[in-house]
Amino acid sequence: MPLDTTTPEYIAIQKEWTRVEDFNNGLLIPNDSGLDTARKTSEEAGLPDIAVSPNEGRFLYLLAKSIGARRCIELGTLGGYSTIWLARAVPLDGHVVTFELHEHHAKVAQKNFHSAGVSEKISLILGSARETLPKYESKEKFDLAFVDADKESSSLYFKELKRLVRKGGVIIVDNVVRRGKVADGTQLDSSSSGVRDIMHVIRDDHDVEATVINTVGSKGYDGFMMVYVK
């Protein structure tokens, strides 16, 4: 059964998760004015507080570096926080392509890219990724894809990203645990159903290998899926 986030027990353990996360981040993640400014600017612009946490951003950064990523593709820019992490990870001649649905979010993100000094490494495509991604073509394959967009379209996104990501590349899909709702078949909301759909698609796809990692922290109880393209 999904966790009830309103109970005193959950609130107490959420504080503990956040305390531990803050401790780890304070020791292991260096200060970065560009990233800090992006978070502050996004908050001041009224963007929803749904960007990845600093340790999740650092994970994407380290993953991209560990596979020698030169080209990354992202679905769901928001204020550009995770995009900046990816742009920090690719080399000087590397590039990040990011898709954003909302014009206001895109404008905030572009401002944040400029402040962080990574604008030249990033191309932002405005519009519904559900409509624009199937039409998107790239002469060069991508090394890493990060999906942090609507979960209803997860299966479509996977199909298109598999086309665009090289063999040996990685696709990360965020928010696939959702406080345990995805694993509860009685939860029929579109996001939980969308994640279950992509898991069934990936289970039957012999061209990829995948796993889900559960996470806890300042963002609560969730998790991400890592897909390796064989």
Automatic annotation (TrEMBL):
Superkingdom, according to UniProt? Eukaryota
What keywords would UniProt list here? Methyltransferase, S-adenosyl-L-methionine, Transferase
Reply yes or no: does the keyword Transferase apply: yes
| UniProt-listed CDD domains | AdoMet_MTases
The Gene Ontology biological process annotation of the record reads:
methylation
Question: Which GO terms label this protein's molecular function in UniProt?
Answer: O-methyltransferase activity; S-adenosylmethionine-dependent methyltransferase activity
Indicate the family of this protein. Answer: Belongs to the class I-like SAM-binding methyltransferase superfamily. Cation-dependent O-methyltransferase family.
Looking up PANTHER family in the UniProt record yields:
CAFFEOYL-COA O-METHYLTRANSFERASE 3-RELATED, O-METHYLTRANSFERASE-RELATED
Task: Spell out the protein name for this chain.
Answer: O-methyltransferase-domain-containing protein
Its ancestry begins with: Eukaryota, Fungi, Dikarya, Basidiomycota, Agaricomycotina
